[in-house]
Design a protein that fits this description.
It is a single chain. The chain has 262 residues and is an alpha+beta fold. The protein is 27% helix and 30% strand. The protein has six helices and 14 strands. The strands form five sheets. Strands 1-2-3 form a three-stranded antiparallel sheet, covered by helices on one side. A three-stranded antiparallel sheet has the order 4-5-6. Strands 7-8-9 form a three-stranded antiparallel sheet, with no helix packed on it. Strand 13 and strand 14 (197-203) form a beta hairpin.
Length: 262
């Protein structure tokens, strides 16, 4: 066998090859390959990453070594810490690499989480698998699913790859609620989508608007409209205060009339 390569067999009896390397007394698996030469190439690339001066951006698509493993090994070399996910540590934050040219920045508070969760991307939607569910990475900032950048949240420094907590600004925290300015004052408009958008009302605070949305959802459900409406969960107030606001908060006449129409 070539250096760093050993033969293995699947349950079916099919033969394949695995590559691995030992660095600072840690055994690192480099993956499985169909032929011995490919496994040997991956071993050589891993050795070059660990003992050379290669940078993450120098990774080439023609390499046999997986890109995520390439990042892990270079971080191991530079910081004496092996992390399975493609993380590279910086002084006060870390970078999570999606490709050689693209990395997301996170606070060190999130290091443990992303050391154990792989970020995946589909049509611009970034998520991790957590307990069998797809969890939007924006949910860690209190941003709802399907939120729109620039409308519901923004990046303070304009860098959409910078997910450090101080840089992610939540504009509209609750479902169906949108903040707007008028005559120098801030208001919150609640909308609900039934067959088209219905304005529930305009409110002085974000919490009032969120509760008004919940109330509108309850009313249209009682009217017999079979549709799932996301519920706003409000942790800042007690159950008693929630009930008080819910009972007194007004909703638009059009919402109240839905029971007669349906």
């Amino acid at each position: 066998m070539l250096q760093g390569v050993f033969k293995a067999r699947k349950k079916s009896g099919e033969e394949y090859f695995r590559a691995s390397i030992t660095y600072q007394n840690k055994h690192v698996s480099l993956g499985s390959f169909l032929d011995e030469n490919a496994a040997a190439e991956a071993y050589c690339e891993a050795k070059a990453a660990l003992y050379g001066k290669q940078e993450i951006a120098e990774y080439k698509e023609t390499m046999k070594l997986d890109f995520k493993k390439w990042v892990s090994l270079i971080n191991f070399r530079d910081h004496d810490m092996y992390i399975k996910t493609p993380i590279y540590l910086q002084k006060k934050y870390f970078e999570y690499y999606l490709s050689p040219e693209r990395a997301l920045k996170f606070d060190v508070d999130d290091l443990f989480y992303y050391s154990h969760h792989t970020i995946m991307e589909r049509a611009g939607y970034m998520f991790v698998a957590d307990y069998g569910m797809q969890v939007n990475i924006l949910s860690r900032y209190g941003i709802k699913n399907f939120a729109v950048e620039g409308r519901d949240f923004c990046f303070a420094n304009g860098d959409s790859t910078d997910y450090r907590y101080g840089n992610v600004v939540v504009i509209n925290k609750y479902h169906g609620v949108m903040r707007f300015e008028k005559d120098g004052r801030t208001y919150y408009r609640a909308r609900i989508h039934i067959v088209g958008d219905y304005v529930v009302g305009i409110y002085q605070t974000e919490i009032e608007a969120a509760i008004a949305y919940n109330k509108a959802a309850d009313l249209v459900k009682r009217a017999g409209i079979q549709k799932e409406f996301p519920q706003n969960y409000i942790e800042e107030i007690s159950a008693i205060e929630y009930a008080r606001i819910y009972n007194r908060i007004p909703v638009s006449k059009k919402i109240r009339e839905l029971e007669q129409r349906y």
